[in-house]
Design goal:
By secondary structure, the chain is an alpha/beta fold. The chain has 2 domains: 2-37 and 283-391, Aspartate Aminotransferase, domain 1, CATH 3.90.1150.10; 56-278, Aspartate Aminotransferase, domain 2 (3-Layer(aba) Sandwich). The protein is 39% helix and 15% strand. It is built from 12 helices and 12 strands. It has helices at residues 12-20, 40-51, 64-76, 94-105, 120-128, 148-153, 177-189, 248-262, 267-278, 282-305, 340-352, 378-391, and strands at 88-91, 111-116, 132-139, 145-146, 159-165, 193-197, 223-228, 241-244, 310-311, 320-325, 357-358, 369-373. The strands form 2 sheets. Strands 1-8-7-6-5-2-3-4 form an 8-stranded mixed β-sheet, sandwiched between helices. Helix 2 crosses helix 9, helix 3 crosses helix 9 (267-278) and helix 10 (282-305) runs parallel beside helix 12. It starts with 11 loop residues before the first helix and ends with a helix. The structure holds pyridoxal-5'-phosphate. The site of pyridoxal-5'-phosphate has 13 residues, from helix 4.
Length: 392
C-alpha cells in the first residue's frame, strides 16, 4: 500500500522553493502568495480568539458560526443550493480539500479529466487516491480554455469525474457561461462528477465573470465545490479551506478523512475566518483592483525587460503570468537542462535572482512557458523586471 506513494510526484514548485533559499535577495515570483497581509478583521478575530481561550478541540467539520457563514456565502455568492451546514466542511487549506474530495469519491483506476496545464498538487491528489488523471488540453489560442468537443471525446467508461479550475492556476484562463453550460450538459448526460476548484474565484478581470458549476440545475448533487481563503483574504499560511458535498455517503467518507487527518482544523484559525467573512468586503475588492493594476504594469514592461524573449497576453483571471519562451532562446549556462522551461527557470533563478516555475511542471502542454506570479508588491515586480533586463 505505501509503495504506491513513490509514484506520486512532488511538485517542482517545492524544488524551486528550496533553490530560492540559496539566492541572495531573491525576487519571489515563484510562489502563488500575495504580498498583501490578512485583513484587519481577520487579525482582530484571531486576537479575540486568543483572549477568549479558543484553544480547545472544536467540532470535526468546523465551528457552527463559520459553517453558517460558509453556507450563506455559497448560496448567495456562488448560487449553490446548499441544504445546510451538515453538507459543508472546513479543511486545512484548499490542498487538503482536494485530498479529501479525491479520497472520498474516487476508486482505484477511476479516470479524472484534468486540464493540461494544471496546478501540480491536483494531479498528485488524484494519484494519491490511486485514480488516473487524464489530461485535457487547454489552448492559449482559446484564452487557455478547453475545446469542449475534444473534452467529450476523452470521456471513457472509466471516467468518474472532471476537474475544473476556473480561474486557472497557472494560465489564468476563465471558463465562460457557455463552457459551463456545455460541461454541465455533458456531466448530466454521461453521469459524471465534477471537482470544481474555485480557489481564484475573486480574481477575474476585464469584465469577465466567474461561474460556479454547482449552481447549474441538478449539478450540485454531482459536484464537489472547493474553496480556500488563502488567496481571497491573503491567508496562505493560516490554512483555511472549505468544501461542500450533498451526497450523504460521500459526505460521511469526507468527514472521516477530516477527522483522521486533523481531528479539527485549528480552532483559532476558524475564528479568524469568521472575522474574514464578517469584515468589510471592500478589502477583497481593493486586492482585486491592485492585482489588476500589477498585471497591467507587469505585461507593459515585460517585452522590453525580456528583450522579446518572453511573451503573452494578460490573463483574465488569477494572478499568474504564464508566458511563452522564444523557442530560439538558448541558455548560456553550462549543463543547462534539455527542457526549455527548466532551462529558463534555472537561468532566471541563478543569474537574475528571479523565482519562477517551469511550465512543464504543470503538464506537458506547459513546456515552452514559465509561470511568474504578479501578486508580489510593485517594488519586487519592478526589481525582478530590472534584473531580467540586465541579465537576459
Ligand atoms: C488551483 C489551486 N487550488 C487550490 C490551491 C490551494 O491553496 P491552499 O492550500 O493554500 O489553500 C491553490 C494554491 O496555490 C491553487 O493554485
Amino acid at each position: 500500500m505505501a509503495q504506491f506513494l513513490d509514484s506520486v510526484p512532488f511538485s517542482g514548485i517545492i524544488r524551486i522553493r528550496d533553490m530560492m533559499y540559496s539566492v541572495d535577495r531573491p525576487f519571489r515570483l515563484d510562489q502563488g502568495d500575495v504580498s498583501f497581509d490578512a485583513p484587519e478583521s481577520v487579525k482582530e478575530a484571531l486576537r479575540k480568539g486568543i483572549a477568549e481561550n479558543r484553544t480547545h478541540y472544536v467540532q470535526t467539520t468546523g465551528i457552527p458560526p463559520l459553517l453558517d457563514l460558509l453556507v450563506k456565502k455559497m448560496r448567495t455568492v456562488n448560487g449553490t443550493p446548499i441544504g445546510g451546514a451538515d453538507e459543508v466542511m472546513v479543511t486545512n487549506g484548499g490542498i487538503h480539500g482536494q485530498y479529501i474530495a479525491c479520497l472520498a469519491l474516487l476508486e482505484p483506476g477511476d479516470e479524472v479529466l484534468v486540464p493540461d496545464p494544471c496546478w501540480p498538487p491536483t494531479v498528485s491528489n488524484i494519484l494519491a487516491a490511486q485514480a488516473v488523471p487524464v489530461p485535457v488540453p487547454v489552448y492559449e489560442s482559446l484564452g487557455w480554455r478547453p475545446d469542449m468537443d475534444e473534452l467529450a471525446r476523452l470521456i471513457t467508461p472509466k471516467t468518474k469525474a472532471i476537474l475544473i479550475n476556473t480561474p486557472s492556476n497557472p494560465t489564468g484562463g476563465v471558463m465562460t457561461r457557455e463552457d459551463v453550460d456545455q460541461l454541465a450538459a455533458l456531466v448530466m448526460e454521461r453521469n459524471l462528477w465534477v471537482f470544481s476548484d474555485e480557489a481564484y474565484e475573486d480574481f477575474v478581470f476585464d469584465g469577465h465573470e466567474h461561474f460556479s458549476i454547482a449552481s447549474w440545475p441538478g449539478l450540485y448533487e454531482r459536484t464537489i465545490p472547493l474553496y480556500t481563503l488563502s488567496k481571497t483574504y491573503a491567508m496562505t499560511g493560516l490554512r483555511l479551506g472549505y468544501l461542500a458535498i450533498k451526497d450523504k455517503k460521500i459526505n460521511e467518507r469526507a468527514r472521516k478523512i477530516v477527522s483522521l487527518t486533523t481531528s479539527n482544523v485549528s480552532s483559532l484559525i476558524q475564528y479568524g475566518a469568521v472575522g474574514a467573512f464578517q469584515g468589510p468586503r471592500q478589502v477583497v475588492d481593493d486586492f482585486k483592483i491592485e492585482l489588476g493594476a500589477r498585471r497591467d504594469l507587469f505585461y507593459e514592461k515585460l517585452p522590453k525587460a525580456s528583450k522579446g524573449i518572453l511573451s503573452g497576453v494578460p490573463p483574465v483571471g488569477a494572478f499568474y503570468a504564464f508566458v511563452k519562451i522564444d523557442p530560439a532562446w538558448k541558455s548560456p549556462l553550462p549543463n543547462a537542462p534539455e527542457s526549455l522551461s527548466w532551462a529558463m527557470t534555472e537561468f532566471l533563478i541563478k543569474k537574475a535572482r528571479i523565482g519562477c516555475v517551469p511550465g512543464v511542471d504543470f503538464g506537458s502542454r506547459g513546456e515552452g512557458h514559465i509561470r511568474l506570479c504578479f501578486a508580489r508588491d510593485r517594488k519586487e515586480l519592478d526589481g525582478a523586471l530590472e534584473s531580467m533586463e540586465a541579465h537576459l
